[in-house]
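seq:
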Amino acid sequence: MPMQHHDTGSDVRLDGVSETALWTVRMRAQESERADALFDDRLAAAFLDAAGVAGAPPGAGVLQQVLPDWLAVRTRFFDDHLLAMTRAGREQVVVLGAGLDTRAFRLDWPAGTHVFEVDLPAVQAFKARVLAGRGPDIARRTPVAADLLGDWRGALLAAGFDPGRPTAWLCEGLLFYLAPEAVEHLIGTVGVLSAPGSTLGAECLNADTAESPFVKPWLEALSGSGTPWVWQLADAERWWAGHGWRAEIADLLALPYAVERFAPHLAAFSGVEKDSMMLVTATLPAGGR
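struct:
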């Protein structure tokens, strides 16, 4: 997952997978300006101002047209999930591959919540410059500069993470960029660091839909742009169970805000579209792995 940082005067450019963080933050800024916004990320505009040109996701297929609404629904879903988990007593939150995530600032966390944000040093340096002088109102925020393909476990522990306490983990917009063996290692490390009762949120590509007319052009465009999605699942619940987690796949069409947001697209869907991306929430039961 190579990421490079180039300082070009007043602007900062994040290459490779890091550039996808700028695509995402641009969509978050646009969402925050909507009257019917599903979340409010006022810091997104500050990141765009600092980065200069943010670029855009490659290609022009149907999935790309749905992408801003998908991102809005995904963000809201994991916002609600993390708040529910912390209100149920999980005071530690770890966002893996945090990119330009601002949940530490914008969510109404319970008092005592500690948010760890793990990402590469280049990403953390850019983020620190933009956020200089700003701090969350409620949560304690700790950036952790580490490569998720390296010893991020040691860096997280050194930053004050307590593996003896239940944790709410988040892997949003991350795992499909990693090779299967890297995902195995990452989730294995998460399991080792997780006390019973810990939870995990993740986004997964459904392998059964990867060749569909909806998904395949998107995957080809990503590959051509140098940011391929290389990990996918055919049976998500079974895969997570094999790693010690009791997982559930969200039924997005049971969420009123998702139905409302996707309504303009539903007439064009053949059915495979709603199953192509999976939002997973999982719990580590007593006894762990």
